[in-house]
Amino acid sequence: MMKLALQPLTREAFKPFGDVVETEGATHFPINNGTTTRFHDLAALQFSGSNAKPIVSIFRGQAFTLPLEITMMEHHPYGSQLFMPLSGHPYVVVVAPKGELQPQQIQAFLATGQQGVNYHSGVWHHPLISLEASSDFLIVDRAGEEANCIEQDLNQSILLEF
Amino acid sequence: MMKLALQPLTREAFKPFGDVVETEGATHFPINNGTTTRFHDLAALQFSGSNAKPIVSIFRGQAFTLPLEITMMEHHPYGSQLFMPLSGHPYVVVVAPKGELQPQQIQAFLATGQQGVNYHSGVWHHPLISLEASSDFLIVDRAGEEANCIEQDLNQSILLEF
Questions:
Q1: Phi and psi at residue A63, to the nearest 5°
Q2: Which first-to-last residue range defines the signal peptide (chains A, B) (predicted)?
């Protein structure tokens, strides 16, 4: 089975797939008479199609342990999908570029509990892989008329490991 | 000085002002082959005006202690503003109904570190009041051409206390 190791999650490495939502390195300025710092506009939200709009939800993901067999990926053709951890636990982000899904192009990142990710529209990703404990995430994604989740099985499984 | 005590934050009590973003009591269903629970569409996002769009930011608020003197309120005429706590600490939500600001209509709520709030457009609220420690919040609010923050000093201060 093909093996895939986790990389640290950085804005630069994740750029082909979307945004890393974190304070480090972000544009920021004081508001509220100096009592609050605003880290401003951290993700490109995308929503298209009929009656499309962004919505806010919470996902509660069960805890996984590595090594873990990856057998499928999914993408959302009509919108971005943002995950922001609320429970402070790390999680795994598995992605592949837009277009035809090619297993050898799959990459995996280890996100800290203080890093969110925003998958851009069309970017292949694995469903939520929380580590350590069942974890909640705030989600900003797209509602609309068209079905917006395309799943595809891999023609060969990938073993995800630290 | 007029004194104001904190109420527990509940969906019902907060309904005139906006949404409480929490899993408890929310519509939910399984996704990702049963490994994730989706608590679905928890807030009414609003954004109007020229070139209006929702944006995602992080606010880092300094810690306050009570009792605290409240001297002003603000509102956003062109959009809602959602706060979701990322640090797990409680915070205080001070609000008044849309329209002419009347100090005797101000209410204060104690939010847990697992409860977000979404102020609806036009609803008066106080800037961020984190308790216990400096705390980060994920924010979903509106960007656009028109200025979108109206501040107003109170004609009499209010003493906020537990």
A1: -85, 135
A2: none
Confidence of residue B56 (pLDDT cuts 50, 70, 90): very high
| Domain-wise residue ranges, chain B | 2-161
B-contacting residues in A 94-113 (Cβ below 8 Å): none
Residue in chain A closest to B22 (alpha carbons) equals: A58
What integer pLDDT is reported at residue A55 of this predicted model?
98
A53 touches chain B (CB under 8 A): yes
Model confidence at A105, in pLDDT bands (50, 70, 90)?
A: very high
- State whether residue A29 sits within 8 Å of chain B by CB: no
- Interface residue B161 vs chain A (CB under 8 A): no
Shortest CA gap B151–chain A (Å): 10
B82 contacts A56? CB cut-off 8 A: yes
pTM of structure? 0.97
CATH number for B2-161: choose from 2.60.120.480, 3.30.413.10, 1.25.40.10, 3.40.50.11720.
2.60.120.480
pLDDT tens digit sequence for B14-41: 999 999 999 999 999 999 999 999 999 9
Rounded alpha-carbon distances, angstroms, from residue B142 to A41, A92, A101, B35, B82: 10, 30, 35, 33, 10
The complex scores an ipTM of 0.97
